[in-house]
Design brief:
Helix content is 68%, strand content 5%. The strands form 2 sheets. A 4-stranded parallel beta sheet has the order 4-3-5-6, with helices on both faces. Strands 1-2 form a two-stranded antiparallel ribbon. Strand 1 and strand 2 form a beta hairpin. It is globular.
């Protein structure tokens, strides 16, 4: 097992390179930016649909009002995603351009939206008015939205890098000059999309977005099978096990399918058909990642209530609340689970077992798949029941999943617990031997008429305290003065783990009267925030982005640092150490 892990670990640089790929990062960050749309729209979807389960139906006017808000948010999801992906892709492209010659991401976003509309929508004309066909403006158009964003970013970089722009005299205000600077790349983008759309429709008789769906549909179908699901979620856990954030590698490839399948399930359910898609966002949030990647919800309860090892019980108590809300980094790095051979098998295979159980219930027992999107931080069991629309079979499936996860983790948990207990017993024995040796030394000194060692040590310690007290006070005062007025930004993958350290810093600073401002955010949403902060701290699962972050920070003149796993957990739990860490980084 350890040899297998060593082989996988050797590939970590390659996996990190994949995670830093600017195309995958732009998809992930662009998709994260539109999640509020998905969650907001799902609230109206839940209110409109869930009461139907108990035979209650809203009056037509109320029902239409609820679905209008859903359709006008979720229905234009791809348009929004084209813009957000273009924005994040432009940020990535700007890292390779001089500071004084950057891509205007606002112009890039506008070009991506227009390009996407050209590729995905038909004109609907009537005697009274005309409009857009909205079939591919929602989740079905996500793949086309990504393509439009990338093409736009590539064209913009080509022209901006070579200064092929309309140049204005120096006397013209910068905002006006920027407008003219964008004319050529913007025009070329729209012309490329327009010509391509004309040629494609003439050749195939339908829009590009429809063609993309037809090409990728077999892959989506294969991914929804037992083998496809195992590969997707086994890989996600495997990457995390070797310390690389698995979702950042795997999720961009399936993001479009996750949302589109949720939409298809809801449409099938409303039409009285079977909602049969398994590969959905809800399934990933609440079944595969129940308690975080690796399905660690049951494991943290084992640590907290069943462990005999004092260390494991302490880790469990510290991690149980975050894990319940799908933030399991405190457990992954403090236990540790990452790169721990004992937990390799359950960490990789528990998520696979969970998704297979869900598929069995959908395929053979007729249960409808996930239809409603909820925040990923919702506790897994609650999210499962709500996301599946309170179906009776959902309660049965949830119980089975928890039992299976317990059965998978328990033998390995017991083995690790025994290992830790043995280590603690050995340490205790060493401490006992040391105390006995100390007692023997004292008796020997007393017999020989020598001074009591304990008294001498106590006196020396007292003198040390006296002499060090002013220095300690001076050091603390210096640290406080160094931190006053400073601002620290903590980044992780989703904005959950970063909150642990940001909150710890804020609490410690407040208790000590230090004027230190902190914030937590997901990596990818940080670019526009950087000028407002003095130091940026990367959580362990985002450490692979350090090279890119350094480029971003150099542009605005602030500092950045990445934390290791156990170091990050220790800092988030110790206010003095976290403040000292920040002070040290700022003084470099």
């Amino acid at each position: 097992m350890e040899q297998l892990i060593a082989i996988i670990e050797k590939g970590q640089p390659f996996f990190n390179a994949i995670a830093r790929n600017k195309y995958l990062k732009a998809i992930r960050d662009g998709f994260i930016s539109v999640i509020p749309i998905i969650i907001f729209s799902s609230i109206f979807c839940l209110v409109a649909s869930v009461p139907n389960i108990w035979g209650f139906y809203w009056p037509d006017d109320i029902n239409n009002a609820l679905w209008k808000c859903y359709n006008y948010s979720m229905g234009i999801l791809a348009i929004a995603c084209a813009a957000t992906t273009a924005k994040h892709f432009a940020d990535a492209q700007n890292r390779d351009l001089p500071k004084n010659n950057q891509i205007n991401f606002i112009s890039c976003m506008c070009a991506a939206i227009i390009g996407f509309l050209l590729l995905s929508s038909d004109t609907i004309a009537t005697d009274a008015a005309s409009g857009f066909n909205t079939t591919y403006l929602g989740s079905k158009g996500l793949l086309t939205a990504f393509i439009a964003a990338f093409v736009t970013g590539i064209i913009y970089k080509f022209f901006i890098k070579r200064n092929i722009t309309v140049k204005m005299p120096e006397q013209v205000p910068p905002n006006i000059s920027q407008t003219f600077k964008d004319i050529i790349p913007f025009s070329v983008c729209i012309a490329v999309f327009w010509v391509f759309d004309i040629v494609f429709r003439a050749a195939f008789g339908f829009c590009f977005a429809q063609g993309v769906i037809q090409v990728f549909q077999p892959l989506f179908t294969a991914a929804d099978g037992y083998i496809g699901l195992a590969v997707i979620y086994g890989a996600m856990s495997l990457f995390w096990f070797v310390g690389v954030h698995g979702p950042s590698i795997v999720e961009p490839a399936i993001a479009a399918a996750l949302v589109a399948n949720m939409t298809d399930n809801l449409a099938a359910f409303q039409a009285g058909q079977h909602a049969s898609a398994v590969l959905t966002q809800g399934a990933q949030y609440f079944v595969v990642c129940m308690g975080g990647t690796g399905a660690t919800l049951v494991l943290v309860f084992m640590f907290c209530f069943l462990a005999k090892s004092q260390e494991m019980r302490a880790v469990g108590k510290a991690a149980i609340v975050p894990v319940c809300f799908a933030v399991n980094e405190p457990l992954l790095f403090a236990a540790p689970i990452v790169l721990n051979p004992v937990f390799f098998v359950p960490f990789v295979f528990a998520p696979i077992a969970n998704i297979w159980i869900l598929k069995i219930f959908i395929d053979f027992l007729g249960m409808n798949g996930f239809m409603y999107t909820l925040p990923w931080t919702l506790p897994g069991p609650i999210g499962t029941i709500m996301g599946l629309g309170f179906q009776p079979l959902a309660f049965v499936m949830l119980a089975i999943i928890l039992v299976v996860d317990f059965a998978l983790y328990y033998p390995f948990f017991r083995a690790y617990d025994a290992q830790k207990c043995a280590e603690e017993a050995e340490i205790s024995q060493e401490e006992l031997d040391a105390k006995n040796a100390e007692k023997a030394a004292k008796l020997n000194d007393a017999f020989q008429g020598k001074a009591d060692a304990k008294s001498v040590a106590a006196g020396a310690a007292a003198e040390a305290v006296k002499s060090d007290a002013p220095a300690a006070a001076t050091t603390e005062a210096t640290a406080a003065s160094d931190l006053n007025g400073k601002r620290v930004l903590v980044l992780c993958q989703g904005g959950g783990t970063s909150g642990l350290l940001a909150n710890a810093l804020a609490k410690a600073a407040k208790e000590r009267g230090i004027d230190l401002e902190t914030a937590a955010e997901a990596y990818g949403n940080h670019v526009d925030m950087l000028p407002d902060f003095d130091l940026v701290v990367l959580a362990p699962q985002a450490a692979s982005y350090l090279a890119d972050l350094q480029k971003d920070c150099e542009r605005v003149g602030n500092k950045c640092v990445a934390c290791r796993g156990k170091q990050y957990i220790e800092l988030s739990q110790n206010g003095d150490k976290s403040l000292a860490f920040v002070s040290e980084q700022l003084s470099k």
